[in-house]
Amino acid sequence: MFLERFGLGLGGIALGQLLNPALAAGGDSQGVLDGRLHHPARARRVIYLFMAGGPSQLETFDYKPLLNQRQGEELPESVRMGQRLTGMSGNQASLPLAGSRFAFTQHGGSGAWVSELLPHTAGVVDELCIVRSMYTEAINHDPAITFLQTGAQISGRPSIGAWVHYGLGSDNQDLPAFVVLVTPGKVDQPLYSRLWGSGFLPSQHQGVQFRSGADPVLYLGNPPGVSEGARRRLLDRVGELNRHAFALNPDPDIEARIAQYEMAYRMQTSVPGVMDLQDESTATFERYGPDARKPGTFAANCLLARRLAERGVKFIQLYHQGWDHHGGLPGGMRVQCRETDQPCAALITDLKERGLLDDTLVIWGGEFGRTNYSQGKLQPDNYGRDHHPRCFTIWMAGGGVKPGLVYGATDEFGYNVAENGVHVHDFHATLMHLLGVDHERLTYFFQGRHFRLTDVHGRVVRALLA
């Protein structure tokens, strides 16, 4: 295609009007469900705070004093039960139990245990629905992150945000329904754009990454030296060529491109407004913390997430890397929690004060947990933890989940789920349910069968619902 070869992102204006006026005007606003939800929705939008690398549940929300009492003792085989370990610690001669170096205190009416590393989160704990019994099969980062973000450990499936856009459409025709924000400069485990990709869904459902700096969305502006008039004339001619091509071969990919070109055109005016934080008060910046005025930081991205939610963006995905603490965990956790604790709590409070928390589902968590034993040498003030898929903690807030709930439990060693386990597919099924979608009924036919986010199983965890 001439249009595709030249990558003229804004070039579908005339073509869209000629071929599909509804699409050109943002006609997928209702999604494939056409506004007919499977049941009443509790959430209209999602803000997913993904802590890439696997934050330790034992240093945050899952208090295990037994590990401190038995510090340095060998992990009992009766607890491990022959479960697989990674190659990073599986060949250690010893697997010494490691208690947390940080104090835990109960907070709020729920009495939830929260680490001293998270004082701001502790202050809003009664807004949280804490799930301490998450588990997954994936033991390494790439398949584990891919599983949480797409419902499959092997790449190629649509991301959660893509499924949400496909099913529910958009609430703002001037901004993408699915926006991605990544904290820059923090790389321990790589992130790939396929994590917010559309997979086999039409490409207009993929996430759009917003960046800090003068060019928030790459290739959105006109090329240097090209006037608006010249661009307009060129786009009109390209539209005519594509109209003829579509008449000969009505390829749905042309319509997908039209939708993207139309969105790019509208984003030229809408994106600068949402990215400009000058209208935010000093009190708001102080609430989100000292990093809030630094573009691209997690704090600034949390504030931006609230602004996007206000403007009707359906799915907002934040990624914050740096949680992969195989060694130097106490120091690493202090840094990570200092960067994220206050902004997370501020986001909850900000949404609530603006009347947005009731229909905004906020999610915090990583791809798996960490082991209760030390990877490498256990020292009095230093240790590391390996990957642990058997149990980890996430929390949710708003959007129809039960506030002040601590759900599920792990054994006294913090190694296995002891009650009310929540699998990744169960988590996804519950998320979709809160959005008014039956996870078994939102499907896409591809390569001979119907696919869905939850693959072939998953259940709604109704105990988490308000």
Q: What can be said about this structure in brief?
A:
With 466 residues, the chain is α/β, with parallel strands linked by helices. 32% of the residues lie in helices and 15% in strands. The protein has a single domain, classed as Alkaline Phosphatase, subunit A (3-Layer(aba) Sandwich), CATH 3.40.720.
Write down the overall geometry: globular
Percent of residues in helices = 25-40%
Query: How much of the residues is beta strand, in percent?
Result: 5-15%
CATH superfamily: Alkaline Phosphatase, subunit A
End-to-end C-alpha gap: 50 Å
| Unreliable parts | 1-27
**Secondary structure: number of strands:** 17
Helix count equals: 14
Proper CATH architecture = 3-Layer(aba) Sandwich
Main beta sheet: strand number and arrangement?
9 strands, mixed
Structural write-up:
- The chain has 466 residues and is α/β, with parallel strands linked by helices.
- The protein has one domain: Alkaline Phosphatase, subunit A (3-Layer(aba) Sandwich), CATH 3.40.720.
- It has helices at 2-6, 13-19, 21-24, 65-69, 77-80, 119-123, 141-150, 160-168, 228-248, 252-275, 282-288, 298-310, 329-353, 424-434; strands spanning 45-51, 104-107, 112-115, 128-135, 178-182, 208-210, 315-320, 360-365, 369-370, 387-388, 392-397, 405-407, 409-410, 417-419, 422-423, 444-446, 449-451.
- Strands 1, 4, 5, 6, 7, 8, 11, 12 and 15 form a nine-stranded mixed β-sheet that branches. It has a two-stranded antiparallel ribbon with strand order 2-3. A two-stranded antiparallel sheet has the order 9-10.
- The chain is globular.
- The relative contact order is 0.22.
